[in-house]
Amino acid sequence: KLDGRDLALRLYGIRVDALSEKAARQLGWSRNEGVVLTEVEPNSPASQAGLQPGDLLYTLGPYRVRGLEQIGSLLEEVQSGSRAEVGVVRMFRQKARLLEGELVAR
Q1: 3-class DSSP state of 35
Q2: pLDDT digits (tens, 9 = 90+) for 32-72
Q3: Could you give the residue ranges of the DSSP H alpha helices within the chain?
Q4: Facing residues of 40 across strands?
Q5: What is the pTM of this model?
Q6: H helix or E strand, kind and range, residue 90
Q7: Cβ-count burial 71-100 (b if 16+ within 10 Å, e if not)
């Protein structure tokens, strides 16, 4: 069984990691949920959706992303070519911004 990190990389071209308390504070994110994008592969679905390293992924489709363990169970049902709305938090000029996009699984 693949874990969330492997599935995120294979399906969307992103490397993810757990949200640390320090990163949550920097983003002004009080919830203990989400995963941080540590790398976005060039020309990947995530890159095409405008996601960037440092973004906090907090929703995938209709689901809240609680953490690394849970994202694996969300992603194991994803089919190639399927679309999912995503919600991310990004720091921009010292302010956290909530952004939305769409990922298409490869």
Answers
A1: strand
A2: 799 999 999 999 999 999 999 999 999 999 999 999 888 98
A3: 4-12, 21-27, 45-48, 68-75
A4: 14
A5: 0.90
A6: strand 83-92
A7: bbebbeebeeeeebebbbbbeeeeeeeeee
